[in-house]
């Protein structure tokens, strides 16, 4: 899941190529070529940071942190955020932003719960219908975001901030501000069942991430996403249907938020109306820490995966060590600022 290879011409580099840092990592010495195949330079560095955190917490608390039970719980907790972050990766690479994903997650979970309640909630058909409603609800919100950004020419920050309020407000109106309980069969089944010792939720998240990572790195949809984020005018001149593509990108982010809402229901058993207010910021932080440029046109799914697990490991390790959870927010905020500064420094160095 690395970035696509370097285009053969300057025009293609702006219109449909991979991010320059990922391409440059493939050129030069055999060592840099090897690093290029493993990931971009920033992915290697943040991967080392993640490895240091894992080793450090394992040494400090070997009987608590470095256990299969704790590590499986850590991965399961990160699985839902990973879905939001992968969708956010596409949005940010296209030079956009989506502040609404937390609200869409909640609204999709609420509508899915209402649907399952209305259809019995115990049959397989009812659970599948709830899943379909959650995913389609998220997709509808995402398409609305994309249409307002692409055709309404409204800045994505304003659009998604507005739909964040609308979706959360709608969820509160439907539930009266009280969490709804998911059908027990969903929580006891999809929420707790495992395959090969790993929760089903994790397998679903991994499968979706792998698929979208390949699409981003190897398929036309991914190349067009990079092209729009790199140079939207050049993308139009190259024949990319920019408006239509942006609707698809935001629709994808909404769809994944809907899926995350359903998996959250399965894992926690309640809609969590007030529990996801910072999910959008966590997803953005994970994507940026993972090396995706806030200016668009650069980033990979591999980096996002690493970026998701850095704050997850910090939170888990701090809890085990008894450190106040506020310190996790301080550290993640500092890492986020450092990641943005590094991105700006790399852009200036590349331009010069």
TrEMBL record:
Main location (coarse class): membrane
Keyword field: Cell membrane, Membrane, Transmembrane, Transmembrane helix
GO CC field: plasma membrane
Q: Compositional bias (Low complexity) spans?
A: 13-23
Question: Where does the chain cross the membrane?
Answer: 44-60, 80-107, 127-148, 154-174, 195-217, 281-314, 326-342
Q: Does Transmembrane helix appear among the keywords?
A: yes
Looking at the record, which segments are called Disordered?
Answer: 1-23
Q: How does it sit in the membrane?
A: Multi-pass membrane protein
The record's subcellular location field reads: Cell membrane
Biased segments, Polar residues type:
1-12
InterPro entries hit by this protein: ABC_transp_permease
Among its keywords, does the record have Membrane?
yes
Question: Which GO MF terms does the UniProt record name?
Answer: transmembrane transporter activity
- Signal peptide span per the entry? none
The entry's protein name is: ABC transporter permease
């Amino acid at each position: 899941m690395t970035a696509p290879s370097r285009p053969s011409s300057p025009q293609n580099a702006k219109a449909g190529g991979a991010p320059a840092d990922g391409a440059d990592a493939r050129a030069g010495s055999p060592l840099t070529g090897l690093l290029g195949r493993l990931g971009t330079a920033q992915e290697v560095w943040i991967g080392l940071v993640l490895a240091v955190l894992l080793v450090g917490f394992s040494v400090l608390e070997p009987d608590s942190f470095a256990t299969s039970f704790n590590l499986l719980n850590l991965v399961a907790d990160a699985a839902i955020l990973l879905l939001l972050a992968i969708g956010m990766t596409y949005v940010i690479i296209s030079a956009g932003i989506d502040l609404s994903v937390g609200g869409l997650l909640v609204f999709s979970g609420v509508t899915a719960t209402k649907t399952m309640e209305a259809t019995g909630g115990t049959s397989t058909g009812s659970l599948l219908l709830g899943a379909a409603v959650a995913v389609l609800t998220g997709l509808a919100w995402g398409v609305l975001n994309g249409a307002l950004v692409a055709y309404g020419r409204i800045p994505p920050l304003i659009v998604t901030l507005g739909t964040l309020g609308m979706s959360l407000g709608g969820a509160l109106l439907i539930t009266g501000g009280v969490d709804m309980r998911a059908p027990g069969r969903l929580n006891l089944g999809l929420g707790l069942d495992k395959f090969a010792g790993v929760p089903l939720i994790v397998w679903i998240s991994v499968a979706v991430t792998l698929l979208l990572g390949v699409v981003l790195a190897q398929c036309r949809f991914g190349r067009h996403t990079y092209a729009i984020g790199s140079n939207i005018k050049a993308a139009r001149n190259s024949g990319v249907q920019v408006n239509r593509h942006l609707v698809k990108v935001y629709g994808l982010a909404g769809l994944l938020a809907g899926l995350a809402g359903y998996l959250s229901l399965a894992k926690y058993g309640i809609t969590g109306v007030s529990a996801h207010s910072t999910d959008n910021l966590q997803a953005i932080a994970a994507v940026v820490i993972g090396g995706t440029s806030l200016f668009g046109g650069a980033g990979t799914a591999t980096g996002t995966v690493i970026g998701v697990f850095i704050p997850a490991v910090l939170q888990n390790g701090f809890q085990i060590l008894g450190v106040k959870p506020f310190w996790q927010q301080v550290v993640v905020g500092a890492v986020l600022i450092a990641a943005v500064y590094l991105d700006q420094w790399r852009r200036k160095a590349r331009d010069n």
